[in-house]
Design brief:
8-stranded mixed beta sheet; 2,3-Dihydroxybiphenyl 1,2-Dioxygenase, domain 1; alpha+beta; about 20% helix; single chain
């Protein structure tokens, strides 16, 4: 579906990739998802856009500036005022990594960590509104925080980003909350991952890319030099998998469950 032109506080509105191999990453995602990478912009430090085949903006990418940092996908939440939101993040236990920074007339960006240590970007819209395609094969399909401190994460996003929320599960095996709007549409989730994140893996945001066939996407990712952290598995929310590009940036995949594919 087309991206919603929404001003919903805290809704995910953009993702971008920080990579140690720009040309390699551009080739990998072009082959895996059919994305069309634009040329890097010297004006913006080599930043570039990924487009769908029909010219819709999907994501961004940039060269990694510090060698010790991991290759990573960052999710950005929409804010009306980056300065005020960053101040609120600091007041509610967050840490500022990148203070508000205007990006020409495109908008204003910032990056913070939440109280559980997860990195999250902020985007105050200018001429760049964010995604132009969502929840279709080859486009972002869902956004999820895996938190080691669910009790600290939830009020942070409610108070700093204005999230309205709905609890989807409240057991030790499945404690999950989603951001919703007044109509009940869901935009992002927070998982209590304290019981199953591997040792040394911090709280983190992840993006699911929608695909037509999760197994085929996993096979292609491996063929292109990527790695698979979680093989495809059917769930009530689709057939999910976790992968990483050849340079270590992790992403998730979501497609129809096997039963859905069999009856399609």
């Amino acid at each position: 579906m087309p991206a919603n032109d929404t001003t919903l506080p805290g809704a995910p509105c953009w993702i971008d990739l920080m990579t140690s191999d720009v040309e390699g990453a551009r080739a990998f995602y072009a082959e895996l998802f059919g994305w069309v990478p634009a040329e890097p912009s010297e004006e913006f430090g080599g930043y570039f856009m990924f487009f769908s085949k029909d010219g819709k903006m999907i994501a961004g990418g940039m060269p990694k500036q510090e060698a010790e940092l991991p290759d990573v996908w960052t999710t950005y939440l929409m804010v009306a005022d980056a300065e005020k939101t960053v101040a609120a993040a600091s007041a509610h236990g967050g840490t500022v990594l990148v203070p508000p920074m205007p990006v020409a007339d495109l908008g204003t960006m910032a990056v913070v960590t939440d109280p559980a240590g997860a990195v999250i970007g902020l985007w105050q819209q200018g001429s760049h509104r964010g995604f132009q395609l969502l929840a279709e094969p080859g486009a972002p399909g869902w956004f999820e925080l895996m938190s080691r401190d669910f009790a600290a994460s939830v009020p942070f996003y409610q108070e700093v980003f204005g999230w309205k929320t709905k609890l989807m599960g409240d057991t030790d095996d499945f404690r999950y909350l989603v951001q919703v709007d007044d109509a009940g549409e869901q935009y992002a989730g927070i998982m209590d991952a304290s019981r199953f994140l591997p040792e040394g893996v911090p709280s983190h945001w992840g993006v699911y890319i929608a695909v037509e066939d999760t197994d085929a996407a996993v096979a292609l990712a491996e063929k292109l030099g990527g790695t698979i952290a979680q093989p495809p598995i059917d769930t009530p929310y689709g057939r999910l998998a976790i992968a990483a590009d050849p340079f270590g940036a992790a992403f998730k995949l979501v497609g129809p469950n096997k039963e859905e594919q069999a009856t399609a």
